[in-house]
Amino acid sequence: MAQLPSLKSRKWERFLSAPDPQLLTELYVPALSMAVKYDRCCAYFSSSSLQAAAAGFGKFIATLEALGEKAPKPAIRLFVNEELSPEDVKALNSNRGTSEEASCNAWMAREARPPGS
Predict the structure, then answer these.
(1) Of 47, 58, 109, 111, which is most buried by a Cβ count within 10 Å?
(2) What is the DSSP string of 10-35?
C-alpha cells in the first residue's frame, strides 16, 4: 500500500462550525480520507452527524480494509452522551452475535435503570 498523506501536510481552515457546508468539504472528507483512526468526543451525539460525513468515511473504511491486520483497533472510538435516540439504539443492537453486542447490552441495561436504583 502506498504511503498515506499526513494530516499535517494539509493547510486546514482555522474555524469551521456546523451547519457550515464547508465543514464537510474542508474538514470531514479530506481528514477522513487521510485518517487511519477516528476518535470523537462530544456532549450530544446523533448518528446523523456520522451520516453527514459519510462521504469521508467511505475512503476511511477503504483505507482500513487495505491495511488489513495492520489497521488500528479499535479504529473508531466514540465518547458520547448517555442519551441515544431509539434509532441509534437499534443501530447499536444490529451487532448481534459480536463482542460489541455484549458491551452495548450491558451499557444499555445499566443506563436504563432509574437513578438511585
Answers:
(1) 47
(2) SPPPS---TT-THHIIIIIHHHHHH-
Q: Which helix (H) or strand (E) holds 41?
A: strand 38-41
- pLDDT, residue 13, reads 81
Q: Which of 71, 1, 69, 10 is nearest to 36 (CA)?
A: 71
Exposure of 6 by Cβ count < 10 A (0-12 exposed, 13-18 middle, 19+ buried)?
exposed
- Phi, psi dihedrals of residue 97, rounded to the nearest 5°: 85, 5
The residues that bridge with 38 in the sheet, in sequence order, are 76
Q: At what angle do helices 99-112 and 86-93 cross, to 10 degrees?
A: 150
**Lookup result for grid cell 459519510:** 54
Task: State pLDDT tens for residues 79-88.
Answer: 877 777 788 7
- Give the up-direction half-sphere exposure of residue 59: CA atoms within 13 A in the CB hemisphere: 13
